[in-house]
Amino acid sequence: MTTIDPTAPVVLDEETVSAYRCDGVVRIRNIIGADEAARFRDAAVAVGARAADNFDGSAIFNQYVNVWRQDAVLRDLTLDQRLTKAATALAGVPLRLWHDQVLIKPPHNGAATEFHQDAPYWPHGGSRHALSAFHNAYLAHSATPNLTDDPRIAHVAIYIDAGTTYTGAPHVVTDGLGLTVGEPLEHELFPRVLTL
Ligand SMILES: O=C(O)CCC(=O)C(=O)O
């Protein structure tokens, strides 16, 4: 098992940063240790099991939004300084949290997640660097069907430029918060993340 010190400084080499800036995606191995990942997985499974006040319900996967507000273990993951500092180094600008998600694709689910970009779904202006799971929100991406016997569990933490403004477009995360169109997303749901 890989044990990683969660307080160790995060230093990304130039190659990693330029790969991200060129390709819009990068894999950073072992940023979370295997023992920690097992703890986070258990917490994600538990969120799925007690999903009463989340929304879900596509044939492709069950989606649970803002899990950091519901579960202390997943909050640790979404706001983990290793992730936020790595994301900041990749983006090169200060970031804030947009939201997080747990996605659970049930076993023997023949539906693929078709190619899409994330950014067009969001009510954001002026965000060039939004990152989810270390891919840029403008990167076209997809996921294969889950043909295994086990649920496939993904945790996605999404960070956006701290200066991103609100466009007023409908979105489940921002609807009803009273945000001002054209202003930054200053709200406790979108905290600035640790960058140093
Ligand atoms: O896991 C999936 O099926 C899709 C994940 C995805 O599209 C994303 O993380 O942006």
Indicate the topology:
Blueprint: H1 14-23, H2 34-49, E1 62-65, H3 72-78, H4 81-91, E2 95-105, E3 113-116, E4 124-125, E5 131-132, E6 135-136, E7 141-143, E8 152-161, E9 165-166
Antiparallel strand pairs: 1-2, 2-8, 3-7, 4-9, 5-6, 5-8
The structure holds 2-oxoglutaric acid (AKG).
Residues 61, 103, 105, 113, 118, 132-133, 141, 143, 154, 156 line the site of 2-oxoglutaric acid.
Concise overview:
With 196 residues, the chain is of the alpha+beta class. Helices cover 22% and strands 20% of the residues.
Structural features, described:
The chain is of the alpha+beta class and 196 residues long. The chain has one domain: q2cbj1_9rhob like domain (Jelly Rolls, Sandwich), CATH 2.60.120.620. It is built from 4 helices and 9 strands, in the order ααβααββββββββ. It has helices spanning 14-23, 34-49, 72-78, 81-91, and strands at 62-65, 95-105, 113-116, 124-125, 131-132, 135-136, 141-143, 152-161, 165-166. It has a 5-stranded antiparallel beta sheet. Strands 3-7 form a two-stranded antiparallel sheet. The protein is globular and about 45 Å long. The two termini are 28 Å apart. The relative contact order is 0.19. The model has no long low-confidence stretch (mean pLDDT 91). The chain binds 2-oxoglutaric acid. 2-oxoglutaric acid (AKG) is lined by residues 61, 103, 105, 113, 118, 132-133, 141, 143, 154, 156.
